[in-house]
Amino acid sequence: MFKIKQATSFAQRNSASRLLSDRYSWRGYGKAELPPDGVPNRISLSAIEEGETIGTLTVGLDGPEGLNADAAFSDLTNEIRRQGKTLCEFTKFAIDPISGTKRVLAALFHVAFIVAHRIHQCQIAVIEVNPRHVRYYERMLGFEIASDVRTNQNVKAPAVLLRGDLAYGFSQIEQFGGKLDTPEQGRSLYPYFFTIEEEIKIVVRLREAQQRRRAVVA
Question: Which pick of 10, 16, 87, 118 has the fewest CB atoms within 10 Å?
Fold first, then answer.
């Protein structure tokens, strides 16, 4: 009964920022909020249920302004760029501890994957996570450790950089997406992702929305 939307309105962004602030504060991290509206290459997504934001995730696309991960991990992000890989990051992630089920989590990441790979042709996604959460992302999404433990100065907390091959992610979606009756259900988040048929419809809607935004700007 929830929907995934791009957080574009003031109300949506304010609600997502409130969730981010609450969850980061609960963990003892520094202040966190969505990137300002209109910042190039930052696409914030929200999971919304009955008007309330129950999850949020921002896709950061690489560009002249770089990525948030460059602050602590520029040697590693630059190495990925030197390899000729198109880079993005998943950041500003928060989930409501009560309403944020695996389906919500999977839906947010699936739409983020679509935005990054299907719409913007990114190949590698990076994400900064607390060392305590590394194993979860390895097991549930197939991300790999790319760094030692460093300090994320924005939130004043230890962080490890993980990297994920988005082509691998979509191969897992094709194999397991929407198949909750498989043994993989307990070992991975991918069975909670949308089916390929549902994904195709989401891609169409996102591309239509992108065309409408370009028409407005023009």
Answer: 10
